[in-house]
Amino acid sequence: MFKQVMKKIGVIFLALTLLILDLTLLGAFLLLTQDGKFSLVEQIGYGVWALGSLAIFIVIAYRFKLLSLKEINWRRLVILVIFFLGDLLGYFVGQLTHNAAMENQDALNKMFIHVPTYLQFAVVGFIIPIMEEIIFRGLLAKVLFGKYFKTGLVISSLLFMAGHSASTPQTIVIYGIMSAGLAITYYKTKRIEYSMGVHILNNSISVLLSLFV
Description:
The N and C termini lie far apart (51 Å). By secondary structure, this protein is mostly helical. The radius of gyration is 17 Å and the shape is globular. The protein is built from eight helices and no strands.
């Protein structure tokens, strides 16, 4: 039992490390380029790294039976759309009030300001949401906590908020709503693909809006 728990913790640690490395490597690219832009070689290099990391996450997800597209009931996409609209509303509220809740998003916008748009969508809008859902809702809540799934969702949601620097009342409310929406989506549908879909839509729209706001 102890060995199994330690093995699961090791997998979670590996996943978190890969996610952090993805963001760190992207920031390093920006610091190393003299003109603040990605060259074609750098774009290809980072793209290969990001896709490789995503592939590892997918393998881990299938290893722990977190993914199975064949089991998706597409009628449940209504749930996905509802929670996505809630996340989107939170984003607009943050933009209109321009409060501390958007500090995390502003930091990401500055970090990606010289990154090609397609790479922003690929990494922030698609790859990172999948990684985060596998880590927080999948590995932490379902795999590590097992039969204590509800407790795992609560704890993983709190860790998700902490990972997004939710430390002020505004950030706690906005990221709390987002985290709760993702957790409820996973709990109600029993499939992580749905929470991934919500997360992907949320991040993709955020990237799109950041190009014009």
